[in-house]
Amino acid sequence: QVQLVESGGGLVQAGGSLRLSCAASGSTFSSYGMGWFRQAPGKEREFVAAITWSFGVTYYSNAVKGRFTVSRDSAKNTVYLQMSSLQPEDTAAYYCAADLQSPLGRSPSSYVYWGQGTQVTVSS
After folding, report:
1. Which residues lie below 8 Å from residue 117, measured CB to CB, with a gap of 6+?
2. 102: burial class by Cβ within 10 Å (0-12, 13-18, 19+)?
3. Cβ–Cβ contacts within 10 Å for residue 30, how many?
4. Beta bridge pairs of residue 92
5. How far apart are CA 58 and CA 96, in angstroms?
6. Long-range contacts at 60-66 (CB < 8 A, ≥ 24 apart)
7. What is the DSSP letter of 55?
8. Which residues contact 106 (CB under 8 A, 6 or more apart)?
9. What's the pLDDT band for 115 if we cut at 50, 70, 90?
10. Are 22 and 79 in contact, with CB atoms under 8 Å apart?
């Protein structure tokens, strides 16, 4: 079992920045990597970014590439999502998730464990 807890969400003006954190506990050695997803009201959950634990290989959706940066601190079992140049369309609940297998997936179905989510609201 892997437990995931997100933090760092909030309200920010367009153009601003936020950093989300995802603290993992439990059998963290069993996960291959971590992903960030987001879900806006009435929309499907969508892939944002992902990172492998071992080599820190990163993946991004086209919607956030160049604006968001995913990183990890293996010693703290924590993954971060630094979000910059935020826009109103980035408003959503953000979730971190653990993928147990290689390669890291971009579909929610690839991820086994999920956090409870943290809300990000970007005002115009």
Report:
1. 6, 39, 93, 94, 95
2. exposed
3. 12
4. 120
5. 14
6. 61/106, 64/90
7. T
8. 35, 47, 50, 59, 61
9. very high
10. yes
Smallest Cα–Cα separation from 106: which of 33, 46, 54, 65?
46
Place of tokens 């971060």: 80
The C-alpha atoms of residue 51 and residue 96 are separated, in whole angstroms, by 11
Q: Beta strands of 41-107 (E only): which ranges?
A: 46-52, 58-60, 68-73, 78-83, 92-99
Separation between Cα atoms, residue 73 and residue 77, nearest integer Å: 6
Q: Determine the average pLDDT of the residues in 9-27.
A: 95
Alpha carbon distance 71, 58 (integer Å): 8
- Residue 35: the pLDDT is 97
**Cα–Cα distance for residue pair 94/23, rounded to 1 Å:** 14
